[in-house]
Automatic annotation (TrEMBL):
Pfam families: ABC_tran (PF00005). Residues 1-223 form the ABC transporter domain. Residues 243-279 are annotated as: Disordered. This is ABC transporter ATP-binding protein.
Length: 279
């Protein structure tokens, strides 16, 4: 998803809350939105979720399925928890049986089972907030947007938030979450989007985040170009490996890692076979 020069004010002639925000969030990424009270965090999240539309600029490539949990989940709805969640599951495209299963699963997981037959307006704020989380997760979203998700939740439910985030990321989705309590520490590997003066500063995940090794196979002719691109994107190249050789041939020594800045030309592994890059 990309935000291109997004501007928003709440009324014509009013002050710009966001005055030219450009940012990008890729599948598998999580960004924590930071900023002082009134900086525009909720406004930004609502734009990303599609709840608000930019006055100028645009939001492109928003995933089709968005899970949106506002800071205050609106519980003043004349349904029981089960009826509400089942209707939300159906609205998200689940068949009746799948919707029932998803409601059972998420009410169990979030400790909502005792409240299934309780009417929404009778819920406490924290319990209503859990219903908000459940409705967003009934069908794994391509983009999960959580506005201050730790607010009002009990300790057990707060501990669940990183698990939900992980599930969305593992399924190839992206997550945006605002935080003014400093709970960000629970999401190692998150980018930091800081909103101030109507603008956004995007900082990549800090270096103390967990690091994973990804191995990919690429055509040998594209090894140097791939390595250069990965380096340009800030990834660390650990090794470039020749493909397994047929038994009749002597094993080739590992190919050297092309130096930083090396382009696709002059690549010693250019022989049309596949090479493997680990980064
Ligand atoms: N519906 C609205 N109509 C008019 N102004 C609004 C509306 N919603 C927010 N604002 C104003 O926009 C600015 C940004 O508000 P926003 O709620 O996005 O900030 P925030 O960073 O999320 O704040 P907080 O940390 O207090 O939740 C504030 O000045 C706020 O008063």
């Amino acid at each position: 998803m990309r935000l291109e020069d997004v501007r928003l004010r709440y009324r014509r002639g009013g002050p710009w809350v966001l005055r030219g925000v450009t940012a990008r969030l890729d599948p598998g990424e999580v960004a924590v939105v930071l900023g002082r009270n009134g900086a525009g965090k909720s406004t930004l999240l609502q734009l990303c979720a599609g709840v608000l539309r930019p006055v100028r600029g645009r939001v492109v490539d928003r995933p089709h399925r968005v899970g949106w949990v506002p800071e205050r989940f609106p519980a003043d709805q004349p349904f029981t928890v089960t009826r509400y969640l089942t209707a939300m599951g159906r609205a998200a495209g689940l068949g009746r049986a799948d919707a029932d299963r998803a409601v059972d699963r998420w009410t169990d997981r979030l400790g909502l089972a005792p409240f299934r037959t309780v009417r929404m307006p009778d819920l406490s704020k924290g319990t209503a907030q859990k219903v908000g989380l459940a409705q967003a997760m009934l069908r794994t979203p391509g983009l999960l947007v959580l506005d201050e998700p730790w607010e009002g939740l009990d300790a057990a439910a707060r501990g669940l938030v990183p698990e939900l985030v992980d599930e969305v990321l593992t399924a190839g989705g992206a997550v945006l979450v605002s935080d003014h309590r400093g709970e960000t520490v629970r999401l190692p590997g998150a980018r930091h989007w800081t909103v101030a003066d109507g603008l956004l500063t995007d900082e990549p995940a800090t270096g103390d985040a967990a690091v994973a090794v990804v191995e990919v196979a690429v055509p040998a002719a594209r090894v140097a170009g791939t390595v250069a691109r990965l380096r340009a994107d800030g990834h660390q190249i650990l090794r470039v490996r020749e493909p397994a050789v047929p038994p009749t041939r002597a094993a080739a020594p590992p190919a050297p890692v092309p130096p930083a800045g090396a382009g696709p030309t002059g690549d010693p592994t250019r022989d049309g076979r596949a090479g493997e890059v680990a980064w």
